[in-house]
Amino acid sequence: MLSRVADSLFWMSRYLERAEHTARVMNVQLNLMLERGVETDDRHWARVLRSLGVEKPEEEAAFAFAQSLLHSTRAPSSIVSCVNSARENARQVREQITSEMWEQLNRLFLEVKRADDAGDVRDFLQAIKEGAHLFQGITDSTMTHGEGWQFIQAGRGLERAVAVAMLVGVHFTEFHTAHPDSEPIEWIGLLQSCTAFEAYCKAYTADLRPDRVAEFLVLNPVFPHSIRFSVDALAASLKQLGADVSSRRLARVERIAGRMQATLAFGQIDEIMTAGLHAYLDTVRRQCTQLHSALYQTYIAYPVAAALGA
Amino acid sequence: MATIATRETLPAVFGQYVLDAAHDEMFDSSGVVRPHYEQLYAMLLDLPAEELKRRQQLSDKSFLHQGITFTVYGREESTERIFPNDLLPRILTGEEWTRIERGLTQRITAVNLFLKDLYHEGRILNDGVVPRELVYSCKHFRRQMRGLHVRRDAYVTVAGTDLIRMPSGEFVVLEDNLRVPSGVSYMLVSRQVMKRIFPELFRKSCVQPIEHYSQALLATLRSLAPQGCPEPTIALLTPGVYNSAYFEHAFLAREMGIELVEGRDLLAHDNFVYMRTTAGLRRVDVIYRRIDDDFVDPLAFRSDSSLGVAGLFNAYRAGNVSLANALGTGVADDKAVYAYVPKIIRYYLGEDPILSNVETYQMSDPTERRHVLAQIERFVVKAVGESGGYGMLIGPQSTAEERDEFRRRVEADPRNYIAQPTILLSRAPCLAGGSIQPRHVDLRPYILCGEKITVVPGGLTRVALRQGSLVVNSSQGGGSKDTWVLH
Asked: CATH classification of B359-421 is 3.30.1490.270, yes or no?
């Protein structure tokens, strides 16, 4: 497969995951806003922006800026921009994905483009989430589960691991001292932002405890939005992709992925919390960045000299 | 049995079908249906108008769903358009086709000899058959090609020659497209659609197949592989998704099962060309390039090109990669050089041309220029290096301002223009707003030249969809028709 094609598929997937994640977080936060006093709003929205990894311009009010994350075509991290970028990437490799995938992504794009500030926000966010889920389902059931599909899986896994790590990190910095009983809705909000509330309750009952929430979102092996699950999925795709590549070139990708998997598989939540969850999640994010660049070095933007020597 | 019909007695569906001085593909001058159109004619009489409309919608939908679009330059919004396809096939007899095929084979053979000669000894220039200054002043002449050996001497690998039919019924060559001719995907897709829409008629008519075009193209490209390369890697080089013919590039790459690459996917190293794949660099042996000469290699040609591959030309010169078409073929389809093709055929082959040219006036010749400018409204004036219907004046349909503008342009740069008498293209029946009406058409067959020469029977019939219009280019409101060559 051409490196350019792999690149486009990978980013198509990352952008769409980002759009879905942003939509979910925004939806949860808009709900929480109804329950909260107005005076905390600006501090609160500044935190939401941090948890999405978005830099807010100094002069802008946090809430106004957060709203631009919905429809603004000028904000590069807005939902509209993400869907647009996903589609642009898909368009570049139109003949490499199935017609069903293209049509669904195109439909989502048109829907998002039509929506504006006047429309119902909840409907808009719901449409994004559903559209992204539908795209995933269509991808899994119409596309050959070959190299291209693996790049799509890898992109989603990586994006999700980074996004959840960021979200959880920011949340715990803010609330780790307080007992969950004092701010229950914030903890429910965190879980809902990862579609994890129902799943958490099944695992631990509705008794919300910070260490359990952290354990669930970071270390759970079978919940699809946990960091461990995402990293495992990513590693599995990388392993499949590695089948065709010489082991020397692959070494770095394998090492980083293996190290991440081991840290998550054998981590103990009490030790992690004692040593500092924030630092732990920082490491996870740093390793994700390293993995991304290793992936690019191996498959996409490899130095020509190295490839010729091989 | 020939159906006798005069204008007065034509059935309702042909009510607006008026014969004029142009050659009509379906009726002879007395209004009698030509024998090879009888099947179609009979079917049209049987089909209710609504049914015809329904089938046209079916056909349109089919094109829409396959995303068969082209891009119109110069507009921001909705630049992707569906290519309009007319439902009624354009039909040629086997004899007509045999003559065309022989003529095209002769022409491409001579043109390839001409190109080889130009870029090597230049005998034809020394003998004064083609003026030296005409060739050297052509902007598509590539001095970098001097002395470079082209595999199998196949300079032009793919040609899409435009033929038109004179009022006398004779086919003549209007233009040779020898650089990167496009449109063949429309020919293939419209055949697929036609077979679904008129299966009965198709079966009864005994139409010669064209479906093997992609195989023939692949075989042609394979035959150009550098020596000692039995299993060549072939790639189609596209400028990218924003190019007007991107659909066709993707279509052909898929049909041939070769990689569709952009310039940034390729790199040249030590005079070899590689593509970047996820499994490492892979050598490329033959490139079917759909990029103009100018953009192929920023080191050899336009340095501001970001579409090409730096170092490609050196690899080409070293014989490690073949390009189809070769670089520098544009000198032979320069519209001023075109006028010399009959002489070129006689010079190299010692034969009379089977297909004639359209009479052409060189604006660089003072006498001919005066003659044309005095009555410019009777002529078609064309820029010599343009294609796609850009840079052209159609005298009889022009405004006074346009004519003045062209007079100025011709005077300013005479070498860049030629003029031809306005020719009434032949007309074929088309479905227009529920009734059948005649529209002007041309014919672009595709010629492949590698180890051997292949011309698939048929081609792209382009239609000027506006009533009375003589311009068939897709960028100027033209459409297409399936072309049937009968056994």
From this structure: yes
